[in-house]
Fold this sequence. Notes:
The chain folds into 2 domains: 15-56; 57-90, no CATH class. It has 96 residues and is mainly alpha-helical. It is built from 4 helices and no strands.
Amino acid sequence: MKPSPPLAEVNIHLRAREQDRSLIDQAAELTGTNRSQFMLASALSAAKNVLLDQTTIMADRRAFRQILDWMDTPASAEEEAGMKRLAASRAPWRNG
């Protein structure tokens, strides 16, 4: 038997215009979900994209070479501390 998903732990409330709610309801119906499921899935997808957009580096060949050279240089004490702090943190979109 497949375990049931954990129950939601918090409420998220928002106000919307009637036309926006109708649009969301139409989209939810087309995807076979209810309004809450559709809105949560959409919000989570958007949140992940924002976080990924803020952590992706685009670089030309010269800048990429500089980044690689920087990465090959031994880390300073401050950088070591920062890396330990990041390694101990949890991605906001991960459960548990």
